[in-house]
Amino acid sequence: MGLSIKDRKLLQIAIPVSVLVVGFFTFLAQKFNLLDDPLRFLGAIFCVTSSYQLVVTASKNGMFKASKEVSYYGEWAIVTGCTSGIGLSFAYILAHKRMNLFLISRSEAKLEALKSELNDKFPAVQVNFLVHDFSEGCPESFLKVLNEGFEALKPGSIGLLINNVGVANYVPDRFHAFAVNEVERMINVNIKSTVHLTHSVLPFMLENRKGAIINVSSACGTHATPMLAVYSATKAFVTQFSTSIAYEYEKQGIDVLAITPYYFMSSYFKAKEPTLGIPHSSKVANGALKQLGRTKKAFPYWFHATQRVLFGFHPDWPQRLMWSMEQNKKRSEKKKST
């Protein structure tokens, strides 16, 4: 059986790179007499292989690729959970880029106000909206109205879907302390909304043979997060779901990206002003858009990526996180009692 075109291309890259690595290592061995010292020899092997792996990893994560402008994908962007936090930042950034907006949120009053603000600041941008509370799930009646709304748009114009709507427990607690309806609410908002919106929009993107989906996950979904067990599990689902379908549809011209930020300024994490570790939501949104077409999963803010690497060196990070969450719970209870 002959080699596929993809395998041939990989060989064309792998062979010269391997020759360069071997040649470079031979040069080092002769220059520094590494063969006479086993420890120096092993150290040189480690340095060369680590450098090679770093370059390969960077390449896989899109560091050497150019990002795509959102306008490339289409004229309309769909944004859920758009009246505050990162969803609101996405809406303003996309309007600034002259993308028309199809907004979905639970508050009609807030959607009306946002539409009015966007129309005043960006008169050339069309804004449609649909009122829905995702904590109720995605019943057939909602999906029918949703598809009718999509079909009413210009054929082939849906370019971007941002599944941002999400919910978390304000106060960390052990799993047994949560009521069943609270658990169901998180599953409905964080998982079902993402799955159903993605399922509804994909046929339109496939017909156009291009499109992009950004699913807002969380760094909590990349490691064990005690006392946020359900929330972190729902976000782990979002990340796995996103990266899996990213491979399914990349050859059809559809880019899927899961972003995994830590804390940023939002209705859930309020701060007086942005800090290095807690940026404004606009930085996270801008970072996410810059990663489109470059990778399938990303920390959209550089310091969050650094945090995740540093946490990985901790011998028992989840145990340390457990202690931190317990302290957060005590502070919340004390604040509530005063």
From TrEMBL:
Please give one Gene Ontology molecular function term for this protein: oxidoreductase activity
Q: Answer whether the UniProt record assigns the keyword Transmembrane helix to this protein.
A: yes
Q: Which GO terms describe its cellular component?
A: endoplasmic reticulum
List the Gene3D superfamilies.
NAD(P)-binding Rossmann-like Domain (3.40.50.720)
Give TM segment ranges.
Answer: 10-29, 41-58, 70-95
PROSITE patterns documented for this protein: ADH_SHORT
Q: What is its main location?
A: endoplasmic reticulum
Q: Which UniProt keyword terms apply here?
A: Membrane, Oxidoreductase, Transmembrane, Transmembrane helix
* Subcellular location per the Swiss-Prot or TrEMBL entry: Endoplasmic reticulum
PANTHER family attached to this UniProt entry: RH59310P
Instruction: Give the protein name, as stated in the record.
Output: Uncharacterized protein
According to its UniProt entry, this protein's organism is Heterosigma akashiwo (Chromophytic alga)
User: Lineage of the native species?
Assistant: Eukaryota, Sar, Stramenopiles, Ochrophyta, Raphidophyceae
